[in-house]
Amino acid sequence: MSSRRTGVLSIVLLSFLLFAAAVFSLPRFAADHAVACKQCHINPTGGGARNEFGNHAVAFQELCIPPTKRLLASQYKKPRVSDAVLVGFDSRWLVFHGRQTFRMQSDFYLTVTPFHNFDFVSRIGPFGGTPVISEQYGLLRFNDTRYWIKAGTFQPAFGLGIDDHTAFVRSETGHPPVSYWDGISVGADIHDVNIVAEAFSRNQRGIFNLHAFRTGFINPVGYIAGFSWQQSEKYQGTTAGIPRAKAVFGGLNWDRFTVLGEYDAIGSHNDSMAVYGSATVRLVWGCYLTGEYNFFDPDRHLQTGTEEFTRISLDLYPIPFVNLRPSYSHYNPRHNGKASEFFMQVHVGY
Question: Which are the contacts of 248, defined by CB distance < 8 A and separation ≥ 6?
Answer without folding.
Answer: 15, 16, 19, 226, 227, 262, 263
